[in-house]
């Protein structure tokens, strides 16, 4: 189980960069192809940019061509899933299990040759990386 790391929204606003706050706390999306981790393939771990919780291992990252970092699975217990009915469609939002920060969305059944047939489409600004 992941330790919960909560703060008031004003505290998050004070510690996060404006774009991080917009994406992580306001459920925004960075423009496709602009994130620093989309084409990043070093060995290591991707953590939540808000609270530092480890979310994804580099061994689960793959090239999807979607314009955002793509992973086929998260570290067990690190990511929560929620139904998202915004913009007139039903999607599955993914958030950090520790702080609730918005990461992106998960898509199933797209036919990628991965063990889970899932694509966790994650905003780079929601992540930090350590090797």
End-to-end Cα distance: 23 Å
What's the overall average pLDDT, rounded?
A: 95
- The helicity comes to 10-25%
Instruction: Please indicate the percent range of residues in DSSP E strands (runs of 2 or more).
Output: 25-35%
- Please give the count of helices: 2
Order of strands across the widest beta sheet? 3-4-8-7-6-5
Which series of helices and strands comes N to C?
HHEEEEEEEEE
Unreliable stretches, pLDDT < 50, 5 or more residues?
none
Bulk shape: globular
Please outline the major beta sheet. 6 strands, antiparallel
The assigned structural class equals mainly beta
Please provide the count of β strands: 9
- Rg over C-alpha atoms, rounded to the nearest angstrom: 14 Å
Describe this structure in words.
The protein is mainly beta and 131 residues long. Helices cover 11% and strands 31% of the residues. It has 2 helices and 9 strands. The strands form 2 sheets. The chain has a 6-stranded antiparallel sheet with strand order 3-4-8-7-6-5, with no helix packed on it. Strands 2-1-9 form a 3-stranded antiparallel sheet, with no helix packed on it. The longest helix is centred in the N-terminal third of the chain and has 7 residues. The mean pLDDT is 95.
Throw out a few tags for this protein.
six-stranded antiparallel β-sheet, mainly beta, three-stranded antiparallel β-sheet, 2 helices, 131 residues
